[in-house]
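Helix-turn-helix transcriptional regulator: structure, please.
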Amino acid sequence: MAAGKCPWRGLGCRRWIILTEVVVPVAVAHIRVEARNLRALGWSYRRIARRLQARHRLAALVAFRLAHGWTQEEAARRWNERWPERGPAKTGKTWSYWESWPGKGGRAPSATVLSRLAELYLCRPGDLLDGPDFGELDAGSDGPGDRLTADCSCAAGTGGYDDRLAELLSMAAPLTSTAGGDVPSATAIEAQLAEFVTGWVQAA
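Here you go.
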């Protein structure tokens, strides 16, 4: 690569650095605090994950991991401790492949992997798969508890924490695509980030 050339020419180096080293870590830190606080209220990990999916538009595999407050490396370590002699040791990179699927560069977890992930995350294997609910096309009626729901009130507030986090994440989304379109400037992202973190005190 030529000197001075940015590998993310479509995004701009400064915007990409802000996204990967500032915006995403701060947003994830807030989500972990939210998950920890909900767990302290007695919520199940499944309920927490569904809330995170609905509120932050996370993929199921990511939501269940963050519901436990784990990084990809921590999740891999727990896998290796539980199944030390079943295949090669898993790494954070392994988790990245699974969580990126079905996107570009991702790798589909097998049925066995999904079963073990469900055991780690304390849920059902099917909970870890994203996709439309075609049961909504069924003319029959579900019984109580048959239809999976987020089981929470996830409507955004008016100008509060949830609105600011949603706006910050929505600004970050275009930066991950090189397809063009309206991409926020680095200055705009920095201003929104500054407003977001003002007054935030991490939970003990």
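Notes: Residues 13-40 form the longest helix (28 residues).
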